Amino acid sequence: MDSIYLSKFKAFHLAINKHGFQNIIILGVNNIRYLCGFYSNPAYLIVTVSGNYLTTEYRYNEQATYESHQGKIMYRV
């Protein structure tokens, strides 16, 4: 993960933990792009204590692999 996205996720994790959340789903193209770099619809980002998951349609495989600075990418059928 690129350092800019890593620092964004660290700050985001601190903020959600401060408010007592353990898991959160991020919706919206601009919000997802800000946190992980992926810019396309339909997608959502699942942020958990154990990891972060970008979920999108399988047809965005190449784009998600190239743009996302996420550790795990899941595809919907």
UniProtKB/TrEMBL annotation:
InterPro entries in alphabetical order? Creatin/AminoP/Spt16_N, Creatinase_N
Q: Name one Pfam family in it.
A: Creatinase_N
The highest taxon in the source lineage is Bacteria
Q: Which residues form the Creatinase N-terminal domain?
A: 12-68
Q: What protein does this entry describe? A: Creatinase N-terminal domain-containing protein
**Protein species of origin:** Pseudoalteromonas holothuriae
